[in-house]
TrEMBL record:
A Pfam entry, by short name: Glyco_hydro_4C
One Gene Ontology term of the molecular function aspect: metal ion binding
Site (Increases basicity of active site Tyr) location in chain: E112
InterPro entries: GH4_Enzyme_sf, Glyco_hydro_4, Glyco_hydro_4_C, Lactate_DH/Glyco_Ohase_4_C, NAD(P)-bd_dom_sf
Record keywords, A-Z: Carbohydrate metabolism, Cobalt, Glycosidase, Hydrolase, Iron, Manganese, Metal-binding, NAD, Nickel
A Gene Ontology BP annotation from the UniProt entry: carbohydrate metabolic process
Cofactor comment: Binds 1 NAD(+) per subunit.
Organism of this sequence: Azospirillum palustre
Residue numbers binding Mn(2+): C171, H201
Family: Belongs to the glycosyl hydrolase 4 family.
Residues annotated to bind substrate: N150
Superkingdom of origin organism: Bacteria
Domain Glycosyl hydrolase family 4 C-terminal stretches: 197-402
Name used for this protein in its record: Alpha-glucosidase/alpha-galactosidase
Length: 427
């Protein structure tokens, strides 16, 4: 008899995360007989994604029962796995996270996971996810909570501080880094294995190997990189030259943690392109749902994104699945970083749980670079858990991206007011 489970997806109205998850869920029969419950506060987005799930489930003959609801507590009854991909007033507040610091003279990138933007993403997002996790704790305490929401490291760390929920963060950043490397190597991504350890969006590749033979590809990368187009991912390459390892995932994300990150491109997220793309994607989804448009081929194949379905299948069927990258509490997995820090490392998932894989001690210079950001992340989480403006100011003043105490105070006042409805103590 095949094991089955109940999977609850909170934030299922998210077209990007939802479609990626659907690709993985409905391109396999490993979870046949299981129930997928989609949850969102936006009924229209929820209806669209539920209808799309039904189409892809039938097309893939995946054998999953689809449910939908706006009541998350009802959805959690009997859940074995809970996925969370939420954001609060995403584009409007994210724009402020980038534009307000820039107005006050802070040069930075993206404004999502590091710098002032990373702080305010944490301040407004962590309280809501703590509420969700406490519902999990009360209703389905044995479930694995899989977080897909940014800022990943801070969310996972915050949940460990105030709940007993088993939590795993998942991100596709390591695969994005592999794409950049393969452009330089001139190799197909399926031919290359990468191993990495560090912080989310600040992970360092300890090994790059040819999948078929296990051959070390770092020497070839160094050779090819020396003559590659210098305009291609310049920040990662400068750090590669200085520290000897390749950093994930991309210059815009990595640049969020560094005072010189803007040198590779001082820009925020491309909201205009994102919003245009969402309109196109919704139109395509509607056409697939009503049958007026064919299902794109890649929608019926596994994604190269987060590995949530592999984690679920590994645990459900005790298959000892190797997961290239996940965010967990350190507890010695990366020697030299605080035990109670959220780190990103390889994992093995089976019926006994999720098991982090230690790749040993990172080079000293990289550890010191990570330690700076570790302190920022720990203090920003404390600020969010206490709903404390005083701690938030301290978090800004120790952040290497912030080079002015006057700017820090002005940014704090302006962004605190914009985020005030969502900031509160979680303790």
């Amino acid at each position: 008899m095949q094991n089955t489970t109940r999977i609850v997806f909170i934030g299922a109205g998210s077209a990007a995360f939802g479609l990626s998850l659907f690709q993985d869920l409905f391109s396999t029969t490993e979870l046949a007989g299981s129930t997928l419950t989609l949850v969102d506060t936006n009924p229209d987005a929820l209806d669209r994604m539920a209808a799309l799930a039904e189409v892809l489930n039938r097309r893939g003959n995946a054998g999953i029962t689809i449910e939908k609801t706006t009541d998350r507590r009802a959805a959690l009854q009997g859940a074995g796995f809970v996925l969370c991909a939420i954001a609060i007033d995403r584009n409007r507040l994210w724009k402020l996270d980038f534009e307000v610091p820039k107005k006050h003279g802070i040069r930075h990138t993206l404004g999502e996971n590091g710098g002032p933007g990373g702080l305010f993403f944490t301040l407004r997002t962590l309280p809501l996810i703590v509420d969700i996790a406490r519902d999990v704790e009360a209703i389905c305490p044995d479930a694995l909570f899989i977080n897909l929401s940014n800022p990943e490291s801070r969310i996972v760390l915050g949940l460990s501080r105030c709940t007993a929920v088993r939590t795993l963060g998942l991100c596709h950043g390591i695969f994005l880094a592999r794409w950049f490397i393969c452009q330089i190597l001139g190799r197909a991504e399926k031919e290359v294995d990468v191993w990495g350890a560090g912080l989310n969006h600040f992970q360092w590749l300890t090994a790059i190997r040819e999948k078929a033979t296990g051959r070390d590809l770092y020497p070839l990368l160094r050779e090819r990189e020396a003559t590659h187009d210098p305009a291609f991912t310049p920040l990662a390459r400068r750090l590669f030259h200085a520290f000897g390892l390749w950093v994930t995932p991309s210059d815009d994300h990595t640049g969020e943690f560094l005072p010189y990150g803007w040198e590779a491109g001082e820009h925020g997220f491309d909201f205009k392109h994102d919003e245009e793309g969402r309109v196109i994607l919704r139109d395509l989804m509607d056409g697939v749902i009503d049958g007026s448009k064919p299902i794109p081929d890649d929608w019926t194949k596994p994604s190269w994104g987060e590995r949530a379905v592999a984690v679920i299948a590994g645990q459900l069927h005790n298959q000892k699945r190797f997961i290239e990258s996940g965010i967990v509490i350190n507890r010695g997995v990366i020697p030299g970083l605080p035990d109670e820090l959220a780190v990103e490392v390889p994992l093995v998932a089976d019926a006994a749980g999720v098991h982090p894989v230690s790749l040993g001690r990172l080079p000293d210079g990289i550890l010191k670079l990570l330690s700076v950001q570790a302190n920022v992340q720990q203090l920003s989480v404390e600020a969010a858990l206490h709903g404390s403006k005083e701690l938030a100011l301290q978090a800004l003043l120790i952040d290497p991206v912030v080079n002015s105490s006057t700017a820090a105070a002005a940014i704090l006042d302006e962004l605190w007011e914009a985020n005030r409805p969502y900031i509160r103590s979680c303790l």
